[in-house]
Amino acid sequence: MRRHHVSALAIALIASSGVTISVLGQNKPAPAVFAPTAGQYETADIRVITPGVVFASGLPDLAAAFTKETGKTVGITTIGMGTIVGEISKNTPPPDVIFLPFQLMTTLSLDGGVMPGTFTPLGRTRMGLAVRAGAPHPDISTVEKFAAALKSAKAVMRSNPASRTMVATLIDDVLKRPEFAGVNAPVSTKGEGGQALARGEGDMAIQTISQILPYKEIELVGPLPRELGAWMDMTTAVSSRATHADDARAFIRYLLRAESNKVWKPRGLERFE
Length: 273
Fold this sequence. Notes:
Blueprint: H1 8-17, E1 20-23, H2 38-43, E2 46-50, H3 52-55, H4 59-70, E3 74-78, H5 84-90, E4 97-101, H6 102-110, E5 120-132, H7 143-152, E6 156-157, H8 166-175, H9 193-198, E7 204-208, E8 218-223, E9 231-238, H10 245-256, H11 261-264, E10 269-271
Parallel strand pairs: 1-3, 2-3, 2-4, 6-7
Antiparallel strand pairs: 4-9, 5-7, 5-8, 5-9, 5-10
């Protein structure tokens, strides 16, 4: 099961403001804090489908604040990247607001899945290296130093590329480079690489920064060297199937306000300015 973090502020606001969250496409129910079910997603004023990387970057906090200001309830469904486009196209009731990596949103838009004029860049989420809390932070400022750090680890945990998620694929592509030959990088059998490290498996992990920061058991060393191109550029749009298009546009405008960067940035999402 994919775990998600919500700040104390978000939990308090969610409890009182009508933001509902559910997780689809997973074998186990979401943690207790996400007690609202898909039925509440169905009745929300604004229905949202997002991959976990945007969720972990502060989306619930901003949704809760939006609801507090406007009275419009927001239902958020998190779907794995491997199946999210299909769910956006067939989920009933349909989503109003959608979040996808640029490549997937482009394809969906060309297929008529995006309301014209609403395809909007959101921000960049980078892959990072994590170590156990309190462990030394290696120098990973260059590809050579990063490779040396990984080779010094007993096990570098990572997401399973068989999951077909973009995160897992990006990490797998990095580790297939010749510089990383000899790195022991077992795939996590339960959740993402960062979650495995937080459970005590391995001594390092590669994961999106936004999905490293929520865990107190692990620490972010830093982003992977820029030369590796290990990041995802995220976008948002109003779904062409939206039934609350005006509210969806208002919610997106709220998310893109300069003030919202105070939430996005500390969670690992670098907004496009």
